[in-house]
Amino acid sequence: MKRATVLLALAGAAMAQPPQVSSVKMGSVVLGKVRGEDASAIGSAWVTIMREANVGRAVSPDPKDKVAPFSQGQGVRPDGTFGFTGLEAGTYRLCASHPGTTWLNSCEWPSGPDITLKIGAEQLIDGIVLTMRKGVPVNIRLNDPGNHLSKNEKSTPGAHILLGVGTARGRFRPATVTTEDAAGRDYSVLVPAGTTVDLVFYSGFFKLQDHRGNDVPAAGTKIPVTTDPAGAAPPAKVVLAVTGLAKP
């Protein structure tokens, strides 16, 4: 009986205490969708939200004022929607990509201004739309009759080739190998329709020839490639070559 009396007294004391407010911060929320230029929903894309160190903040010598870089990604739902939760206050950038398809990275080839958000504490931001452009393949043939690539790439330091395009935001998108045979390789890289890009071709190890059969200088070369405005057909294949070693 005495034990029951003590428990009732403790329960009554607890109920008399004022309710405590939770100190857990839920963070901010960003909701949006991924669409193509034709307004179609792009399901199964990948969206990344990034906070770069000290973006939008005054420079401070105090290490405590520094903002650590942050990056988080997630797959898009079938209807093209996405949502990020638990975000701290800061300036963020959003990018959408869809590897293995002809959709271009929205931050490399944007259809408009970059999607940059200034997020406050415990804030809900809804209605973000990331628009992706369709890409056209630029196909490249790299002839290597002497098999200089296969003989050196995996065994010799510095034996590599830089082949790709500069994007609209100053990034570099390397061309990817699509097929390989005894006489060389085929590459491809996606770029927007109706645009002219510079195909970068460089190596500090191999001797190279450009699409006109000219030796590529030590500093490399840029080959302009223009795509069809309607994207109906890819441009003519660019044929390049490896002819030897710059550093035998």
Compact summary:
The protein has helices at residues 2-16, 148-152; strands at 28-36, 46-51, 70-75, 81-87, 90-97, 115-119, 124-132, 135-143, 162-166, 172-174, 176-181, 184-192, 196-202, 206-209, 221-226, 238-245. With 248 residues, it is mainly beta.
Strand content: 35-45%
The strand line-up of the biggest sheet is 11-12-8-16-14
**CA-CA gap between termini:** 97 Å
Q: Approximately how much helix is present in the residues? A: under 10%
Number of helices: 2
Oligomer: single chain
Q: Could you give a short account of the major beta sheet?
A: 5 strands, mixed
Number of β-strand runs: 16
The total tally of domains equals 2
The dominant shape is elongated
Overall pLDDT: 86
What are the SSEs and their pairings?
Elements: H1 2-16, E1 28-36, E2 46-51, E3 70-75, E4 81-87, E5 90-97, E6 115-119, E7 124-132, E8 135-143, H2 148-152, E9 162-166, E10 172-174, E11 176-181, E12 184-192, E13 196-202, E14 206-209, E15 221-226, E16 238-245
